[in-house]
Amino acid sequence: MHKFCVVLIAICCSLAFVSRAQDATNAPKTEIESFELQTGTVIVKGLGEIGSVTTSTSVVSVRCKESIDENSGIKEYGIGVALTSNQLHGFLVVDYDELDSLIRGLDFLGKITYDATALPSFDATFTTKSGLLIAAHSEQRQGAIQTFLQFADTPRIPLTSVQFSQFQNLIGQAKTSLDALKNK
C-alpha cells in the first residue's frame, strides 16, 4: 500500500510539472502579445498591410500592428510577419523595440561575405523574440551565399537575393510607417 501511495504521488507531481512546462511554452514571447492578453479592458488590435514576398514555396507578408488599451490609452506597436504555403501557415510578431536590431541584422546578413569567418563554412543567424529567424549560409566557400527565413520550428524558406532585398525593404517600410503612426 505504501508503494502505491508513493507511485500515485510521483505521478501527480509529474503531471503538475508537465502542465506547468506546457503553460511556459505557450506563454507570449513578445511585449505586444502580452499586452493583447490583458483582461478586464477593451484591446483594439489594428493591422496594416505593408507588402509581401513570393518565394518558390510560400508567400511571406509583412504587416504593421498597433494595439490600444481603450481604458488607459496605452499603445503598443510592432509588426506581424505571416507565412502562407500549401503545407504551412504561421504568424509571428516582432515588437517595435526589436525593429532597429532586426534592420541592422538584415543589413549585415545581406552583405555578409566569406570573410565572416576563417573556417570553410558558416551559418549566420538573427532571431527575434518570437522565433523569426533570418539566416545566411555557405558551404566550403563555394557558390553564392544562401539566405533563408524560418518561422520558429518550421523548415527554412530559401530566399533569392532579390527576395531577401524585398523582405528587407518591407521591414524598413514597416518601421517607417510605425514611426509616422507613433508621432501622430
Provide an overview of this structure.
With 184 residues, the protein is of the alpha+beta class. The chain has one domain: Secreted effector protein pipB2 fold (2-Layer Sandwich), CATH 3.30.2450. The chain is 35% helix and 35% strand. The protein contains four helices and eight strands. The strands form two sheets. The protein has a four-stranded antiparallel beta sheet. A hairpin with a 7-residue loop joins strand 6 (132-138) and strand 7. It starts with a helix and ends with a helix. Mean pLDDT is 87; it is low at 4-23.
Helices and strands, with pairings:
Blueprint: H1 2-25, H2 31-36, E1 43-54, E2 58-69, E3 75-85, E4 89-95, H3 99-111, E5 122-127, E6 132-138, E7 146-151, E8 157-159, H4 161-182
Antiparallel strand pairs: 1-2, 2-3, 3-4, 5-6, 6-7, 7-8
Low-confidence stretches: 4-23
Strand order of the largest sheet: 1-2-3-4
Computed over alpha carbons, the radius of gyration is 21 Å
Specify the structural class.
Answer: alpha+beta
Number of strands: 8
